[in-house]
Every structure is written in C-alpha cells, then in structure tokens.
Queue: 3 jobs
Job 1
Amino acid sequence: MKKVGKLLFRIILILMTILLLLVAGLYVTGNGYIIKAIRSTYLKGFTTANIDDHTYFQNREVKAGTPQFWPQHELFNRVQLTERLRKELEDYRSIGFAVFKDGQLLYEEYWDGYSAQSMTNSFSMAKTVTSMLIGKAIEQGFIKNLDQPITDFLPEFLGDSLGRLCTIGHLMSMRSGLDWTEDYHTPLNPTTESYYGDDVERMLLKRKFTARPGGLFRYCSADTQLLAIILKRAIGKNPADYLSEEFWQPLGMERDALWSLSGGLEKAFCCINSNVRDFAKIGQLLLQKGNWNGRQLLDSVFVERMMTPEETAFLPGQPREYAYSLWMDDIHQPAIYALLGHLGQRIIFIPAENLVIVRLGKSGDPRPLGLGHLDTDVYFYVDEVIKMLRDQ
C-alpha cells in the first residue's frame, strides 16, 4: 500500500509539474489570456463567451440620465406570439424578446429568471454603436470624414504600405485588409486574445495589413476595435463617456450600462452590457434616421450611409449583406436592417413597418434553412412578428 501511495503521489506531482510548465509557457509566449478564457468558459460549463461574462472583466459605466420610459401600445401583450415564433425563441434559449411598433412597446417577455432590468452582453451589436459614435465625432469636427486616412490617428501604421491606404470608412465597412482570423471557439486566435487579453490596443497596433484596403467585405472585429482607438484619440475622452453624453442620456435610457474594458480601453467590437428596452432605443433611433423627440442626435445623412452598402464590397450576384456596421437584407420583403451579435443577440428594425424587434439569449439558431443570407432566426423573428401584426 505504501508503494502504491508513493506511486500515486509521484504521478500527481508529475502532472502538477507539467500543468505548471504549461501555464508558465503560455505566459512566456504571450498567450496567458488563454488561462482567463478557460477559467471563464470551460470551467463555468460554457464552450464560448457568454451573455453574463461582464463580471470577469473591468468595466466602465455608461451613465444614464433622466429615464424616458417606453409608452405602451394599446395592444401591449394582448397580441400573442405565433406557435412557430415561440418554439424558435424557447428552443434557442432566449432570455428576452420585445416588439416595438410605431415607437410603442407592443410585446415583451422574459425567460430563465431574466427581466427588463437584467444586464447582458451585446456582443457584436456594439460594433454598430461604435460606428454611430464615429458619425457623431465627424459631425462635431473631431474627425474629417469617412475618407480620412487612419494614419492621421494611428501613426503606428505609417510604416505599413497597405495600412497607409486604409481609411476610417474601410474599417467601418470591414474592407480594411488587416491580417485577422475571426474565430469564437478556439483558444489560439486573435479574436480570443482581443476578448480575454489584457491590452487590446497594444495587441492590435502590432497587426499588419495583408490586402489592399477597399476590397471585398470580410467580417473583422479588429476593424471596429481600431475605430475605438481612433475615436478615443480624436475626441480625447473614453468612448463610454462619449456614448453617455451623446446617446445614452439624450435617449433617456432607463438604466446605466457597462462597457467591458481591455487595458483601460472599451472593447468596441463586442461588449456593451445593457437590457432589452435600452437596446431597442438604438434600433428606434436608427429607424428614425437619427432623430429623437424632434432632436437630431445623429446626422440623417450618416444614418443613410450606414444603411447603404458599397457595390464594390461584394462580387456580382453576391448578396449585399453588410453596409457601414449594419447588416441588411434589402431583397426580403419588407427590407431588414439589423445589429447582430454572437449567440443570437439581435436589434432588428424594419422601416416599412415602423417596427423594432429585440431578442437576447444564450444561443442562436445555427440551421442553414435557406431563408435568406442573414442568420436563420432573423427571418423567424421578422416574418412571424409581421404575421402577429397582420392577425390583429
């Protein structure tokens, strides 16, 4: 028995030594972020980032001011979800769903203990908000226009022959040509490092451009994060404070939000943590071409630009799915515009129906059902909500 005990002790000691060497190796090679990624995903029972993970990061408050509560539609919660829509929402672990018609709250429902006060991660819906802040900075003269070279604010790329050709508009339309791998599930890739790493600005400013800017659309979270660095340098303040001053307070958001940080900089490609009703106001503002209660919070021309894709960003016959930080399907009837995030976070607005739909949840619908070029669930939400309205 003593020999067996000693053998087990030696095995455990060897395993611990190997583990410590692996951990040390990750930090020595600059991959220490993987430890944080594992701790906040796999050790918590997840396989990727989750909607409640802002508690693992430093955050900066986006302060709300005097709240403006959504007026309730006369048919509030008297309309019923279609059977097909309810199944879609519940099968893919939705935690909140709301419909806003003609600027009024028509339907609202929550699941799994979440409520109107719950705060969850926007994921990539934050990209659109960051671009809205860029638009405001242009309006206020901090940035000249979308054609301004990024090197005016990011001199770190002056030595990059391709980087010197990149403009702010190239970043916003995701045609930068930056060397990047977009991956949300494997540990050793730049997307994971930007999410869990300690200094996203330093990381990104070391990247290289490998294609000529202005080419085809290629989804790239790094493009939006570079916009955040530009924004902060242009306006001389934190993006979270700027968001509070220019949109969060004027929109009368009901609650403060949290914007997760990396190295003191807002993670603009992902992480605004808020709730269904306040996220909906972003969609409503875009639906109203930047106007809110008679005040033009964002230039209507800029909003139109956000909704208009560049023809040269797509091959002939390829769907024009992305404009300037907005997803779209202008072939679908009615045309769809959307802010889309990891795990199925959605702010959808339908100008033809004066309609905003918000869905938050723990997973998206991965099925390739051929309903359109956007994610499958987007079409379920739009088509079934319109059916709900038609049945009234």
Job 2
Amino acid sequence: MTEPRSDTPLLFTPIQLRGIAARNRIVSSPMCQYASDDGAPEDWQLVNFGRFAMGGCGIVFTEETAVDARGRKTHECAGIYHDHHVPAYRRITDFLKSLGAVPAIQLGHCGRRASQHGPLKDRAPLTEADANGKLRPWQGLSASALPPTPGGNIPKAMDLDDIRECLEAWRRAAQRAVDAGYELCEIHGAHGYLIHQFLSPLSNLRTDGYGGNLQGRMRFALEVAETVRAVWPADRPLWFRVSAVEGPGGVWGIEETLALSKELKARGIDAIDCSSGGVGGDGKLPPVPRVPGFQAGYSSEIRSATGLPTVAVGMIREPQHAEDLLQQGHADFIALARGLMDNPNWPLHAARELGVSDPLALVHPREAQRLRQLEHHARDYPPGSAIDIPYGTEERGVYSWEEGIARRG
C-alpha cells in the first residue's frame, strides 16, 4: 500500500492497494440485503449498491456472499456458488466501476447460523412448517454440534471431508468473484459465522487439529486465507474481517485477535476490517457500547501491533471524526453501513465539510453539472442581500430572507 502526499484531507486522498487504486478512504461496509433469488442478485442490489458509488464512496462492498448454498443464513441471502451467478454480479461490478468506485465482495459461510428467517422475522429458525411455504429448513455446519442460541437448530460437526469440501467451495467462490469483476475481496471471519465458530472456544470443542489451543482453533481460518489468496490475483487486495472481541459472555479478546492478525499477514492478507461480536456464552466479556468509534480502538491496536492497514467501522458519522482517526494513525480506511443508508451522499457532504477543493468531482458529471448550478445560484444571491422577485413586467415583490418568500406590494 502506498500513500501519495497531498494537501487534500486524508479521507479523500487516493490510496493504492496492490494494483488497485481507490479514489478515497471511504468504504461502504457489507450489508446483507435478504433480497437474492437462489443466491443471485437482482435489481435491488444494483440500485442499493449503486447509490453508494454515486454518492462518492471509494470502495463499495456489495454484501456478505455465501460460498455455497448451505452457507446462507436464509433462502434470500446472497451467494456465488453457481457459475450462472457470475453475469448477475458482473452487471453490478461494471456499474460500480463506471461510477469510479472499487467493487468489493465479502465472501462468507454462516455455519451454524443457517436455516433462518430474515431479520424482519427476528431470525427465527426455519421449521418443517415453513417447508409448506417453500422455505425448507436445512442443517448447518459448524466446528462442533452446538446451536447458535439456546434451543436453536443443531448443526453438523464438520468432519475432515466437510472441511476439505468447504475449502474447495471458498476456492471456487473466489474464482467466480474474479470472473464477476470484483477488484477487492474480504473473508468474513467475524460475527459468529463459520470461521469465527472455529476460532472461539465457546463454539469449538474439537479435540483434533482444528480445535484445542489457539493455534488449532485458528487453523481453519488460516487455511481459508491460504486457499483464497492462492486463487485471488496477486495484483488485487485481500482483506479479512475479524471480531476483535466477542459478544456478551464471550472469551475471545484483542490478544487473540492480534495473534490471528499476525498469522494472516504472513499469509498475504492486506488489511484487517475491525468489527466485534457474534459469539457469547458464560464468559466474562461485557457488551460493547455502541458509541461513535466504538471499534476504532481495536483498529488502532491491530494496526500498531502488526503493521497491517486497518478499517475502522462503527458509528463513525461525523466527517471530522473520520478524518481525525486517519490523521492520528488509528486506521487507513473508514467504513460506514447504516450511516450510508441514512445518507448515501455522505462522502459528498463530508468533502464539503472538510474543505476539499472540488467536492463535486466525486459524483457523476450529469449530477455535478446541476449541482454546480445550485452553488452558482447561492453565490449570485448571498443571504441577506436585497432581492426583488418579478410578478409581471411592471410589478415586483420584495423577498424576505427570514420567511423565504416574496410578497407583492
């Protein structure tokens, strides 16, 4: 990774990642849409992710995308486990690139979190009753045969054949992602998904080489990283998302994450995306308060200890806060999720607030042309100036800046 010197705010300074250049450090974080048809994206995804590129994000992730059908949480989750998925994703990546953004994919496998309804139905487990509505349940896979929540569905504890087949699914999915035009790939190792289920001693009770001590529990994660890096082009960056600490009652903490990150660096991972949560139990970890930048400290620790670039994400809403985190060396990228849902033009507004010389260069020329007219009107008629509004050839109304209206006579 190289950083050109510039007087531009760091948030808007271009950055080189292997052979890929991002126009700025703003990342739209992966957000599951629950709107796919047997894994394939549709118009919803094109519009939803397209709006983040139109708003000026440098890197646009689509959504967590399952490497096989069994690795989806719901029937509506995204996947890239068929060759016919490739052109559907290519339509999106071509569009994102045409708007100046780097198209990015997050590959994942939900493991024991499989066979659920979506969040609008509180992620309730699918049952045989749902099969009548064509939502047939299926058994998930995991490190051990432990349910994701008390009373939840019991997954199959993966045997060595299952692990080999799963690694092959990761390999094929990464190859399809290349064919689909993605320029950045992230491995999802957080949030209680399959990789995290191997990492945590609360969900991994194995006694073979994939369990036991930290090195054994990290083995699957590292093999996934090796598998994907082997087929992901050398000129394209590969990231890894971690839960730096687990959820309430968890035991995995920052020291374990630092050990994992160092091993990932040795296997060609280019950046660590710093999240939290996903596995809990009877451990001593308390909940992580959702305050601005609540995960930025994890990003700072990992960056300092490993030398890897990091992504700070979590309630970072104010542009100056984002810029300060970069300037102070706590992160190399700032990711937003719900904040971009609330305001897809956040990058444009942040550029104005931080004094970028030409913020409108972030958006498409078709939009920029009209927005420049808006700025010209504001300069031509400064607030408080005396303005008359014509009502006819001989009649004028006096405009009131306080009321925002002109009145005749």
Job 3
Amino acid sequence: MRRVLSASARGGTSDEERTPALESRDSRESRESRESRETLRTEFPFELPRGYVDDDGTVHRSGVMRLATARDELIPLRDDRVRENAAYLSVVLIARVVSRIGTVDDIHPGVIEDLFASDLAFLQDFYRRINAEGHTRAAVTCPSCQENFAVDLAGGGRPGES
C-alpha cells in the first residue's frame, strides 16, 4: 500500500495553506496581464487633410487605420505591381490597414491610388507613427509665435479647428 503524503508533510503548501502575500502577488500579476491585454489599442481614427472624393463627388475625410500585422507587410511583397514598382508597396500596404474612409469601407489599392498626394503622404506618416513609434502625436511649431507643441493626429478635429 502506498502512502500519500499531504502537501505540508512533503514540505510544500496546499492551496488552503497558501500565504496571502503569494495570492496577492498572483492575483496582481493576473490582473495586470488582463489589463494590458484589454488596453491594447489596435484602431486609430484619422482625418485626411483634403479627403477622398468618390465616384459621386462626395468628399470623405474621417477614417480608421488599424495596426499592421506581419502578414500585412509580407503579402504585398508578392504583388506583381509591387515587384514592378517598389513605390507601389505603400499603396498596397495602406489599402490593407485602412478599414474605412468616410462611408467607404471597401478599401482597396484603387481607392488609395485615387487619393490626393497630400492625403497619401499623411496616411504613410500616420502608418509609421502608429506601427513604429506606437503613438499618433506629431511635434509642430506654431507659425505665428514659433512655440513648439505636440498635436494628436488621431484627434477628432483638424489642425487649427477648435
């Protein structure tokens, strides 16, 4: 007959004998882990400087860009248009991560091609900020008083509006 020793007889502690400090540390780590998962921001609103003009002539300025995945950066490298012209990479990549511009939610390279150059440049910079730098703030200088400050590019309004 085998004899099974209790946890305390083996030198360990049973669940009932666990110290409050250990439970506190475990629950704190679990809570912090849960909180960090819950607060990861993956979508960022933006406001285009000029706006996308659809086939009906409607201008769409507000949109949403999501964080890029490794797949988002790898898949465009297989695209024939990118192989022929490396500059087209940003068009395909931006089309993969922009989920909406105004009421247009079918975003594809053709939509990005039809953007004004200033809007494409804005989205390229926005992509870099949220994926490489982890934020949407930009350092700017007031043209009147030369004071330096930061603006949040994902803010609701356009620069200069209140």
